[in-house]
Prior knowledge:
It is built from eleven helices and six strands. The chain is of the alpha+beta class and 297 residues long. The chain folds into two domains: 3-198, no CATH class; 203-296, Alpha-Beta Plaits (2-Layer Sandwich), CATH 3.30.70. The strands form two sheets. A four-stranded antiparallel sheet has the order 2-3-1-4. Strands 5-6 form a two-stranded antiparallel ribbon.
Amino acid sequence: MNISDEKIDWKQIFSPTPIVYNLIGVAFAAIALEAFMLPNKFLDGGVTGIAILINLQFGINLNLLLFVLNIPFLYIGFKKIGKTFAVQATISVFLLIGVLEVLQMEPVTNDKVLIAVFGGMLMGTGIGFIIRGGGLIDGFEVITDFTQKNSAFSGSEITLFLNSLIMLAAAFFFGIEPAMYSLLTYFTAIKVTDYVVEGFEEYTALTVISKEHELVKELIVKKFGKAISVYKGERGYLPETFHIHHECDIIMAVVTRLEVHRIKKAITEIDPKAFFYVQTIKEVKGGIVKQVGKKHL
């Protein structure tokens, strides 16, 4: 369906879960700004970082800047990503502005490392909850997505380039030290955002090649309760014995990173020479991924 023909899904926007996520996220982000970052001239990345930079350097109202600077990005989101998304993002931005307008907090600590780390953690937690609620408070996410689809650069490369310019500006206006602490704040925030959005149980693709493939399949499925995919292949082809090879089943299972070690250890007890490789995956949907009690999700 063409985006211009999309209808705004008001039921999705005002359902309880997105509202709760947005409120929690905005609260965390506002506390990060008021109690940690702004009093110490620490910047975040993206539009928020630009707004803080202009606010601290020229004294222009931060809330006004957050509104004005996000307008073009929200418009791009409306045109290129989706109307429902754009409405949710707009609501998130206005919620943040509203909370910042009424929230008054004293700095929690004067320790710059604590400010950078905990400010970044709170900001990352806030952004993560807002993204899970379907919104955003930083228009850079929109321009990154749009530019990535229309250029040879990846989203991470575009984000890194744009935020590098912000940090260079921070170093020019406020000095090297605040810029370095701002980088620490920013990287803490993006790592925490990843954890909140993707979950602490990051999924991993575990692939096993073993001569005892039947026993390995039974172990993974029956003992650990994991679904598997099986590819027909061959093992062998070692440098010293290249001419020796055997047919085998190549087994792949999606597990959490908390389970990888236990499964590998159990497989090694069956076949000490089993070959593993592990890949991090960003998203899992469908099939049997996780067990809660006796119910598969």
